[in-house]
Amino acid sequence: MSLQKIDIFDFTLQNGSYKRWLPLYFQAFGQPIGTAPVVLVNHALTGNSQVTGENGWWNALIGTEKTIDTDFYTIIAFNIPGNGFGGQAENLIQNYKDFTTKDIALLFWEGLQFLGIHRLFAVIGGSLGGGIAWEMGFLKPNHIENLIPVASDWKASDWLIANVLVQDKILNNSEKPVHDARLHAMLLYRTPQSFKAKFNRSKNENQELYQIESWLLHHGEKLESRFALESYKLMNHLLKTIGESTNCGQFIGFAKQTTANIHLIAVDSDYFFTADENRETYEILKRVNSNVSYHEIQSLHGHDAFLIEFEQLNAILKNTFTTQKIKLN
């Protein structure tokens, strides 16, 4: 449960930059390593390795007698280097544009190898975490039994790249960069319909601000208090590098080669990784791979539905994880 560290030495990034040393922090939950099927959980942009337990951000999905059952599985969650979780100043990265999601995927595989883990029952991640899951699959197409990207895609779309640029400009030019970038980002993570249902043009008690304004400002302040500027710059930049080194032909080649069951999970109202992009991915995959399924969460709430609509997500994932339990019991 406690935060642990793996020291990665002599690592060369995709752009040729050499890192003599990189710390890779992680947490392990559930069954001891080597005794049970392993599920790797990749966190999203402002997330971390605390996927279950106290302050666990995916407690509705992971835990005792939950869909991803800690009484049955070994759960590993790495922190993307540079996310600053746990207060390690050494884990902040200044040259953030040197890194790609493929670099992170390589680091995660190195970390797993260090732990003696060579195959994964599943790798699951939402948003940026799902993009890293895809990259891990591209690197080792026959080492993952179930590849489960949620509210994500195998490549960054033009829309996503455009929004990464806007975020980067805010982060490098605003007087309150983390706070202000978060305000803009929340407009991508939710939808107009979600805001209307929640606020409906109401004002707060003193009538000075609309409730939507208060809510956005609160989210800006909350992230500003817990997330370093360097971390936000890096995580935002990584989004646009998803699938950067993989063209459509190579993606089809991966689909033909992989032994993984690919479970695509989109959100019908997602403004970040749109359902249209996921449907297109599914159409490409199913032509060459019979082990692919497509599921769509129905929600007013947009991209953040993968952190909100737990009943739907559990229902989608239940068969994959309970079938494995039945097999081994």
TrEMBL record:
GO molecular function, a single term: homoserine O-acetyltransferase activity
The organism's place on the tree of life at top rank: Bacteria
Residues spanning the signal sequence: none
InterPro entries recorded: AB_hydrolase_1, AB_hydrolase_fold, HAT_MetX-like
A Pfam family hit: Abhydrolase_1
Keyword Transferase (UniProt): yes
Domain AB hydrolase-1: 37-157
Keyword Membrane: no
BP GO terms, sorted: homoserine metabolic process; methionine biosynthetic process
Keywords: Transferase
Protein name as annotated: Homoserine acetyltransferase
Organism whose genome encodes this protein: Flavobacterium suncheonense GH29-5 = DSM 17707
